[in-house]
């Protein structure tokens, strides 16, 4: 068991070791950079959320009351591009990943601290370029930038938006390279691969996808810029181009990008579930293999986005089969979380409520995805609100619930302060029900034929849209409430112990908040990533689990 006072409390924390705005803007401390990312992501979350508010206001009635047709196209493009590339993709890796990975592996920092800071500046510059393009001229292609919309019909600001996504991609690649190098090279003595926490494995798998898939997105957006800006015949069929080439390249990146958004969530939920059920992770090895399976197989299923594009029926059958296959590792994770909870001494602190909500929402999202993997059903619901509901159950219900759960779990470590648990529990419950009221009606609308991206719709769909808009109000409250009480806790919250949850892991063996260099003395690891008493009464040794033990620090 790590000594609770491995770091003397009088040693300055990373928050106070240096002062002044310059010390933050030029910092190479991974923990401070994580907070810089958190501030930027919060700003982008509000901008993307404003687009969602405008969409739901417009859809409250069947007529065009708030936005023009062109304005509506620009608004859902703003919402999609900002939320996907500037919130969902970077949310957990750049914040919790940046803060925790060196702590979890026993390192003083990431492998390339200056590259880490550069990636943040690239991210900020890319976001500024995108917001300028969206506000100054407006982009109306949707977040997918499909041709010929982006190459022929949209205004020229689509090229500026594409450039912003390319820059954000370079930031993503730099972050992925940093995580891979850190996990490979900077693990504490004795920390073998199967002594890594599952969150570290999830970030490792995510980083592989970032590094391997993002260059494809960069290439296809550069081809759009080349055709639109320089007249090169790439996608225009009248000049020998192929418009479907864009879809193949785009979805070859964007389906693995789904796992960039959700794989880190698996790691967060695994850490929370094992802690608050007071049981070791069930099937640790299978959880690791499932993460790697998802990371690799995610590159093989992009064609299920193109069942109605005219591709070969044999290709569609192959992609349909592979789409069912990739559901297996996700199901393994749900089963393993369930068996970890089974007979556990469960306590329902806020992080656990977020985790349970995640499991429920992700399971619904995964099951509805199986219908989209079936060619006949996918043809029926393609480009309807069914797809919107499925995507949001996975990406928003899953990834955002995990992000808030992870933030609640590690907040005492990040800030050294506790937050009001009653309010946190209320926010977690409100998020689950608010999300259900917002997005479940979309499955019904989609099955009945309501197309997505339409602002004017038949009156029979109004009741479902009203229900969805009312649920969005609850969901907005669930998102805003934690921002309030977490900010309050920084100034007035009770001081947190080094390990307030009685959890396992190297990150809990240092002070709250940690010092600049993470550990006073370099830790050594001679045991596995998790250990709890079989009876569920805090850390100990479960002799029935080969990965039962934990770290030791000098």
From TrEMBL:
GO cellular component: membrane
Limits of the Cytochrome oxidase subunit I profile domain: 24-526
Species for this entry: Roseomonas indoligenes
Gene3D superfamilies tied to this protein: Cytochrome c oxidase-like, subunit I domain
Name of this protein: Cbb3-type cytochrome c oxidase subunit I
Subcellular localization: Membrane
Alphabetic keyword roster: Electron transport, Heme, Iron, Membrane, Metal-binding, Respiratory chain, Transmembrane, Transmembrane helix, Transport
Membrane topology according to the record: Multi-pass membrane protein
GO MF entries: cytochrome-c oxidase activity; heme binding
Superkingdom per UniProt: Bacteria
Primary localization: membrane
Coiled coil: none
SUPFAM superfamilies referenced in this protein's UniProt entry, alphabetically: Cytochrome c oxidase subunit I-like
InterPro entries found in the cross-reference section: Cyt_c_oxase-like_su1_dom, Cyt_c_oxase-like_su1_sf, Cyt_C_Oxase_1, Cyt_c_Oxase_su1_BS
Chain spans, region Disordered: 503-554
Membrane-crossing segments per the record: 34-55, 82-105, 117-137, 157-186, 198-225, 245-269, 281-301, 313-332, 353-377, 389-411, 423-449, 461-481
Family: Belongs to the heme-copper respiratory oxidase family.
UniProt-listed Pfam families: COX1
Any GO BP annotation: respiratory electron transport chain
Biased composition (Basic and acidic residues): 534-554
């Amino acid at each position: 068991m790590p000594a609770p006072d491995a770091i003397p409390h009088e040693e300055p924390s990373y928050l106070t070791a240096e002062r002044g705005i310059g010390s933050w803007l030029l910092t190479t401390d991974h923990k401070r950079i994580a907070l810089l990312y958190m501030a930027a992501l919060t700003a982008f979350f509000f901008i993307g959320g404003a687009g969602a508010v405008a969409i739901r206001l417009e859809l409250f009635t069947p007529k065009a009351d708030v936005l023009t047709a062109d304005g509506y196209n620009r608004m859902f493009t703003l919402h999609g591009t900002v939320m996907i590339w500037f919130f969902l993709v970077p949310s957990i890796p750049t914040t919790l990943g940046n803060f925790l990975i060196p702590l979890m592996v026993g390192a003083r920092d990431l492998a390339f601290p200056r590259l880490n800071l550069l990636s943040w500046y690239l991210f900020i510059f890319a976001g500024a370029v995108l917001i300028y393009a969206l506000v100054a001229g407006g982009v109306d292609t949707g977040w997918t930038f499909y041709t010929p919309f982006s190459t022929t019909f949209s205004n020229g600001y689509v090229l500026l938006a594409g450039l912003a996504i390319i820059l954000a991609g370079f930031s993503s690649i730099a972050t992925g390279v940093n995580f891979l190098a850190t996990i490979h090279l900077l693990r504490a003595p004795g920390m073998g691969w199967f002594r890594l926490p599952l969150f570290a494995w999830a970030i490792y798998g995510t980083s592989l996808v970032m590094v391997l898939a993002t260059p494809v997105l960069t290439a296809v957006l550069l081809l759009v810029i080349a055709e639109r800006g320089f007249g090169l015949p790439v996608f225009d069929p009248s000049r020998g181009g192929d418009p479907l080439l864009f879809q193949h390249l785009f979805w070859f990146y964007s389906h693995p990008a789904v796992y960039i958004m959700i794989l880190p969530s698996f790691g967060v939920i695994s850490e929370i579930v094992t802690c608050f059920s007071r049981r070791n992770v069930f099937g640790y090895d299978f959880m690791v293999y499932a993460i790697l399976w998802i990371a690799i197989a995610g590159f093989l299923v992009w064609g299920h986005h193109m069942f109605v594009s005219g591709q070969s029926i044999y290709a569609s059958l192959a992609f349909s089969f592979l789409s069912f296959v990739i559901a297996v590792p996700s199901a393994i994770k749900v089963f393993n979380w369930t068996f970890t909870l089974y007979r556990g001494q469960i306590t329902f602190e806020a992080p656990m409520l977020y985790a349970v909500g995640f499991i429920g929402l992700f399971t619904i999202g995964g099951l509805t995805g199986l219908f989209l993997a079936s060619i006949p059903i996918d043809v029926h619901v393609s480009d309807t609100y069914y797809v919107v509901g499925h995507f949001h159950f996975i990406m928003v219900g899953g990834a955002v619930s995990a992000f808030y759960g992870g933030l609640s779990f590690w907040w005492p470590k990040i800030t050294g302060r506790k937050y009001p648990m009653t309010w946190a529990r209320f926010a977690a419950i409100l998020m689950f029900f608010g999300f259900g009221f917002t997005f479940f009606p979309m499955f019904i609308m989609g099955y009945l034929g309501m197309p997505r991206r339409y602002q004017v719709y038949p009156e029979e769909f109004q009741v479902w849209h009203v229900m969805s808009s009312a649920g969005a109000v609850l969901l907005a409250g669930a998102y805003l409430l934690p921002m309030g009480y977490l900010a309050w806790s920084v100034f007035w919250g009770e001081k947190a112990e080094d390990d307030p949850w009685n959890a396992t892991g190297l990150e809990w063996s240092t002070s709250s908040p940690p010092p600049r260099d993470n550990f006073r003395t370099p830790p050594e690891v001679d045991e596995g990533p998790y250990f709890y008493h079989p009876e569920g009464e805090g850390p100990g040794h479960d002799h029935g689990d080969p990965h039962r033990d934990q770290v030791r620090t000098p």
